[in-house]
Amino acid sequence: MSLKLRDALRSTAAWRISLWTTFAFAAGTAIAFVIMYVLVAQDIQQRTDAWLSGEAEVLADVAANTPRDSLYDRLVEEVAELASREVPTDPGEKGAHKNTVFFLDARPGQAPIWVGPGPMDSFVAAIRDADLVPGVPQTIHVKGWSEPFRAVFHVNESGGKLFLGFSDLAATDMMHRLSVRFLVIGAGIVLLGFIISSAGAFRTLQRVERIAETVSQIGSEDLTRRVPEGSRNDEISRLSRTFNNMLDRIQASVRELHVLTDSVAHDLKSPVTAIRGSLEVALSEANESTWRDTVADAIEKLDRLSQTLNTALDLAEADAGALQLHRQPVDLGNLLRQLVDLYEPAMGERNHELACHFQEGVIVDADLSLLHRVLANLLDNEIAHLPPSRSIVITLRGGESQAELTVEDDGPGFTPELKDKAFERFVKGEQSTGHGLGLAFVHAVVRAHGGSVTIKDRPVSGAIITLQLPVMSVAIV
């Protein structure tokens, strides 16, 4: 095998899959053959033992009922030879019988009667070494014979022993031929299985390779290409759809990132230019008090700019599912009271009438800092967009699983076009001087906490913003 071909085979998983599949198939086939071989060998041995036991009992009965004289010897020999002919034989190359039977009648003080092949002494030595149990067929190994014998013996009343043994060479040859044929057929089946598994693995992994090639060609400049999904609803088709869904999300994220960077760059251009102009004017001023006022105004603008950038970054993290929440038990009612105390003077300057209805003991598991900014954004919107001399009602209610906060006013409300996109970034009304991030930030943070935000119109005029957050515990007093 050439080095180039070897490297090509190593670089593809189809080759390894085919090898492991073939190995498992070959091992399973071999185990099945071994089990079959053992079962057939047991059946043959049971057949042999049944024949031995039956014939040994017949010979023992003949020996017990026949007087021991010259006629006895001849009769027993003929019965033993007749028993050996009852065994099915398999002619060899020259017609020699492959099934071998021996018979031995040994009595104390008398010459033994032997019927069988080869020298009797080898068989007698094998019988002596085997330590046979009367009436139980056992295996003995005779010197000069490659195959073992199954032997059984009986003890007569005079203390003599009658032995009958059998070596089924035909069955041994049959088992040998069966093994050779299995090896040949098994090797062919394994080779065929390897070819089939290789073809299937290569064909399957070619689809994966096409996915890899398509994905490798997709760059940040071109996210419109998609992986071929195929018509079948299998694992690879589902993998292709998963890749395409991921690419859709990446393309949408990149598109949002472009919109975000463009909008932030546009929105930052004016305040940065204004801050630079204010600082240049301050440098040219000789009056120190005027210079200090200008720098203070620039610092205030920088703070607002920093807040805008932080909000935009938090929104990007929330949309990407990477917003880190430092959760802790938060008493929502106490947090609202603190914020209302801070914003009440500003609302008073605009002659707003504020009414608060807070249920006690509403505890939520939330990030205190983010939740503080969410509620501050809602109150900022009321001050920034609500005309003077309007009423604002803030209501907090706790349920078994959700805390519900509503902020209701009798202002002009949202236009139909704006209401549908109110939670999108950089969406704002025509008269708004903000950046369109407030409600988007509220929606992203509440959703990250497992809650929801909705907007609906009041029956006459105005709007109702409803926040729902999972509660940790509710105590109603």
Any overview of this molecule?
By secondary structure, the chain is of the alpha+beta class. It has 11 helices and 12 strands. Strands 6, 7, 8, 9, 10, 11 and 12 form a 7-stranded mixed β-sheet that branches. A 5-stranded antiparallel β-sheet has the order 2-1-5-4-3. Helix 2 runs antiparallel to helix 3 (70-85), helix 8 (332-349) runs parallel beside helix 9 and helix 9 (368-385) packs antiparallel against helix 11. It is rod-shaped. The two termini are 85 Å apart.
Question: What is shown here, in short?
Answer:
The protein is an alpha+beta fold.
Number of strands: 12
Distance between the termini: 85 Å
| Name given to the CATH architecture of the largest domain | 2-Layer Sandwich
The top-level CATH class of the largest domain is Alpha Beta
Topology summary:
Layout: H1 3-10, H2 13-65, H3 70-85, E1 99-106, E2 113-115, H4 120-130, E3 138-140, E4 149-155, E5 161-168, H5 169-216, H6 235-284, H7 288-319, E6 327-331, H8 332-349, E7 353-358, E8 362-367, H9 368-385, E9 391-398, E10 402-409, H10 416-420, H11 438-448, E11 452-457, E12 463-474
Parallel strand pairs: 7-9
Antiparallel strand pairs: 1-2, 1-5, 3-4, 4-5, 6-8, 8-12, 9-10, 10-12, 11-12
Helix pairs in contact: 2-3, 2-5, 6-7, 7-11, 8-9, 9-11
Write a concise keyword list for the protein shown above.
477 residues; alpha+beta; Beta-Lactamase; Heat Shock Protein 90; 3 domains; seven-stranded mixed sheet; five-stranded antiparallel sheet; 11 helices; 57% helix; 17% strand; rod-shaped; disordered N terminus
